[in-house]
Description:
Strand content: 15-25%
Helix content: 25-40%
Number of helices: 10
CATH class of the domain at 178-279: Alpha Beta
Number of strands: 14
Distance between the termini: 55 Å
Strand order of the largest sheet: 4-5-10-6-7
CATH architecture of the domain at 178-279: 2-Layer Sandwich
Radius of gyration: 19 Å
Shape: globular
Mean pLDDT: 93
Amino acid sequence: MLPRFGYLRPATLGETTRALDDYAGEARILAGGTDLLISMKDGVSNPKYLIDIKHLPELRRLELAADSSLTIGACVTVNELLVFAPLPSGMAALREAASWLGTNQVRNRATVGGNLCNASPASDLAPPLLVLGASVRALSARGERVIPLKDFITCPKGTCLLKHELAVEIVVPAAEGTVSGFAKRTRIRGHDLSVVNAAAALRGGRKAPYLKIGLGAVAPTPLLIDAFDGIDPGDEAGIMKVISAAIAPIDDVRGSGFYRRSMVRVLVGDLVRRLGEAGSK
């Protein structure tokens, strides 16, 4: 059973930021609710107020700009992202990750902003957004700021958002000349949390390549690894040496640290080979 709470449904974005300012530290944002309501039922979270924002049109934007950058409103659902026809081919990792996230029913409720703000180390959307260079636009009654996603998630279940701030949208820069992909390993077939997941973005193919790897469930936060200067995308051993030094997987009920390290090698190896072949065509 849910604990008692006050329910606020602001009519505008301005009312939302004022409510966050008035109830800073006492309120939680309600978008899809797929994680928040469960944590409330389990007694993990007990906010005095819920601020419902899923109806606000400014947070429902899903647009590809003339410069090929992508704006994803914080309340865009995962299924809306999954079926977004104008999504550029260079951002394929986003569509692939969205297809892996939860069941169809969950994807109809879960939001892109909520997935990031939940700050799970095993987030499926964080690794592809990291390798694509995404940023989060945050708004408050006192102003706004743009936060690179690599700086946004600070610890398990924690972000750098202040108590009076709202994540409004995610902006992904143009991905022309980029090939990207996503892969995930779970305990069971079908819907399950990641034991480990990986995203990769490769620009330049075999000539002057630029490689980025995003990983989930191998550290306290989703990781962006891009220190591959001078390493050929075909040099799997060189790539894995960099990755192995960056990750710190743990043992838990879903898998051991040893298993996660082994699966990172498999997933990243497959991804880099696939993207290298695609980029050379």
